[in-house]
Amino acid sequence: MATPRTSPEVGGMGHSIKRKEDPRFIRGKGNYVDDIQLPGMLHMDIVRSPFAHAKIVKIDSSKALQVPGVLAVITGETLKQYNLHWMPTLMSDTQMVLPIEKVMYQAQEVAAVIATGRYAAADGVEAVEVEYDPLPVVVDPFKAMEPGAPVLRTDKEGKKDNHIFHWEVGDRQATEKALGGADVVVEQNIYLPRIHVASIETCGCVADFDRVRGKLTVYMTTQAPHAIRTVIALVAGHVGLSEEKIRVVSPDIGGGFGGKVPVYPGYVIAIAASVVIGKPVKWVEDRMENLQADSFARDYHIRAKLGAKKDGTMTALQIKTIADHGYADAAANPSKFPAGLFSVCTGSYGFAHAFAEVDGVYTNKPPGGIAYRCSFRVTEAVHAIERMTDVLAQELKMDPADLRFKNFIPPEKFPYKSVLGWEYDSGNYAGALKKAMDIIGYPALRKEQAEKRKKGEFMGIGISSFTEIVGAGPSKDFDILGIKMFDSCELRIHPTGKATARFGTKSQGQGHETTYAQIIAEELGIPASQVEVEEGDTDTAPYGLGTYASRSTPTAGAAGAIAARKVREKAKKIAAHLLEVAEDDLVWEVGKFSVKGAPQKSKTIQEIAFAAYTNHPQGMEAGLEAVDYYDPPNLTFPFGSYICVVDIDRGTGEVKIRRFVAVDDCGNIINPMIVDGQIHGGLTMGMAPALMEEITYDESGNIQGGSFMDYLVPTAMETPKWETDKTVTPSPHHPFGAKGVGESATVGAPPAIANAVVDALSHLGVKHIDIPITPEKVWKILKEKGAAE
Ligand code: CDP
């Protein structure tokens, strides 16, 4: 790893400085939405549907209104008076806020109770009587597409089926031809089930409408406060909520992972209630509401075909996918990409031909499709290609590492234009895999595996050499509801040489207060400890699109560096004035300008900052500050190679991860310790869907996995020791050569684990197992193959 350019006291890039935000978190002094208490604040709780599809015959609020403390019951009819009973989704579909005619999924919001206390609100919810008339339920997206299936979105005039969209990329004919001419073609169905982000903090808000000032303040667990403010203004402008009178504050967030990007009905109801009643209204979901009604991801049914020559050279890839979006397309994707960035499905390999198509389908499930710790459907794409690579290796009886080396895009081919359209900025895939193999001792493990097989023991080795695609913009391709995807920094240097930097993003645990300060420290030499970072308040921070999809470093981080460079330009003029030399006679070393050839004649950034307010040149504006709205020229393409070793218990089917080596490459690193933290967390979140997590529905649409009793989130007990290392391949277009990293591990880990389990069982003829690979699934396979103990 490169030696940092700055001293530890300055703490610029490459220093593992401790997180500035942690003292408040570890002392319990964080300020989350549920910590917010306002005078006269009311509480809201929500009545939810027990049925997955039913007509609403009647809602009787009379008993609820008699519960002490209950002030109001809000229904779809109430919201209809303000035309707020429907809202747009991020994908320009529509979604009910509260229903009038029918409910479309179990746990859907049916009515809201406003009360003076949280418990009174809950008692009120119990007392609301709703009469339903059940309708036929559609949970299977394939059945939803069959002729004669009940049409779910009867609200859409003329809609005759449950199809949402068809999207395709690549050349279908050329790909089919190439598959036809391939020596070997492997085919596989791969299902990535519905999972949930399961952030420790659930969703919630406090909506506070000040009738006198006409100003609405919403404290909200959102990853994208500015975009939310615009959406509120667009959706509720007609009831008098005007953007300059709306303030969205995103306080400390207890995990977002993509689940806190969308607008959920609870937010709209709480805002409407506060505007109508004129008092602050708090709504915070409980765990089961959170698990049952929002933040769903994946649910991709993939059919993949991979063609190759006899020697293993991959020639063509074809993927057909059915995406189960539940009852509304509320996915959080950039507008032009209904299947997100799934077209990165050719992965790290050089394909001449590829074609991918995705069809979105409505079912009676909550709206799904959020970008759960992956840059818009990249987890699904990577799982498909990394699994298919192993399926091919098995077919060809080739070592999966050799097959990968044979097909990697070589470093000298970058920037590399993939056949599906992306321009990969930089990469050294073979370098990362080689390093991972060296660390884990790959040849010795293969030998051990062969010996174990002779003894009837099941040990597997799985590789995943993934490519990520993160950092949306560029704005020419990326927008959400028409708002272009750039990000921003406003940097102000105070007279005493300290700084405040505000960003359009919003950390949810990633450590932006630390790493953004390090970027400013690197560029200006002001110690990171003296740079105060602020995000998440639309009244003060510059407009930005928020934090998700590992975009903060590639976009807002870049804006921070550029804003600091703008400050440095002005600082140079002031230094020239102070030192009485021409600007061209000055050289910059971290933290000061000095005169060329006379290094003793210099001015530090702190001296310059003071002069900016006390002794600036005649005719120059006072002050030292800059704003940058950064529109990246391209995405960044972090990558990595992961190797997982598993042992399988023949008696129980349990998969034990014995070793897991993760070699990541996110270009130049700001804070190595924070990056390690991102990888550690991501690996655990990648292991979770690989082995444990899944949400399914029975035929009536009842959710299975709606509480932490059934939805298995890994704890420290199940988490193995992760072994991490890095390679560094800077991004050529990012101002300081960084790529995003937040989601690499959640994307890369599941196929490494799945490949390891299949590898352990491959000699029994097992070719594929869908995740989560639970002990039950493995045990059934062992039993079927006569190998269970
Ligand atoms: O958008 P999000 O913050 O989730 O993702 P990110 O840009 O990948 O950054 C996650 C964390 O890792 C942030 O604190 C970054 O500043 C840090 N990071 C880093 O130190 N070096 C990199 N090359 C990339 C990210």
Helicity, as a percent range = 25-40%
Largest beta-sheet details: 7 strands, mixed
| Count of extended strands | 34
Shape: globular
Query: Structural class, from helix and strand content?
Result: alpha+beta
CATH topology-level name of the largest domain: Aldehyde Oxidoreductase, domain 4
Strand arrangement, major sheet: 3-7-1-14-11-12-13
The top level CATH class name of the largest domain? Alpha Beta
Tell me the name of the CATH homologous superfamily of the largest domain. Answer: Aldehyde oxidase/xanthine dehydrogenase, molybdopterin binding domain
Secondary-structure arrangement, i.e. CATH architecture of the largest domain: 2-Layer Sandwich
What is the overall number of helices?
A: 19
Give the strand content: 25-35%
N-end to C-end Cα span = 47 Å
Low-confidence spans: none
Count of separate structural domains: 3
Average pLDDT rating: 97
Radius of gyration: 27 Å
Bound molecules: cytidine-5'-diphosphate
